[in-house]
Amino acid sequence: MSEKQNFNENPKNNPQDKERGNRRNDRRGRQQRREDDGIQDRVIHIGRVAKTVKGGRNIRFTAIVIVGDGNGKVGKGMGKAAEIPDAIRKGRDEAKRNMTQLQLAENTIPHEVTGTYGAGKVILKPAAEGTGVIAGGPVRAICELAGIQDIKTKSIGSNNPNNVANATLQGLRSLLSPSDVAKKRGLSVEEL
Q1: What secondary structure does DSSP assign to 20-71, as a single string?
Q2: Phi first, then psi: what are they for 57, rounded to 5°?
Q3: 115: exposed, middle or buried (C-beta count within 10 Å: 0-12, 13-18, 19+)?
Q4: Residue 108 carries which DSSP code?
Q5: CB atoms < 10 A from the CB of 79, how many?
Q6: Prediction pTM value
Q7: How many other C-beta atoms can be found within 10 angstroms of the C-beta atom of residue 146?
Q8: What is the pLDDT of residues 16-71, one digit of tens each?
């Protein structure tokens, strides 16, 4: 074998790996794309499901996708198809249809909130500037795509990605802005 063949066969020297390996801002190689309209998406779970039919097993794929504009708008969708790319596309389309505007305070959330969905429970707490997103799995994806930069979270109960994502979104949707709280109490924002 010549030196040139050896160089290309060594996986550390493969130029394609250098292109793929530059994932400094993309933890654990998660997929994240930015489209023309400024909406980013991230696949948080891909599952393989099988239905037993007369001729054997019918295998399909499900994909849970989170989309957000980084400015308080976020949505979740689930797609199912025979091929993974089709499932992701369907999930992205559903997530775009389900986008909602969240009440944010600067780079964090205005107050502590708990979101529940099924057996999943997620506690979301505001954090001081510079704290970062202290969250794992689907909660981190939702917070980052919503544009929340400083937050502390804890996921309790179910670790099913669908339940955790739904619990997080339910909690974030229940946030109230200071003006909403003042209106509810019959006071002005300054009196709070």
Answers
A1: HH--TTSGGG--EEE-TTS-EEEEEEEEEEEEEETTEEEEEEEEEEEEE-SS
A2: -110, 135
A3: buried
A4: B
A5: 23
A6: 0.78
A7: 26
A8: 444 444 444 444 545 555 555 789 999 999 999 999 999 999 999 999 999 999 89
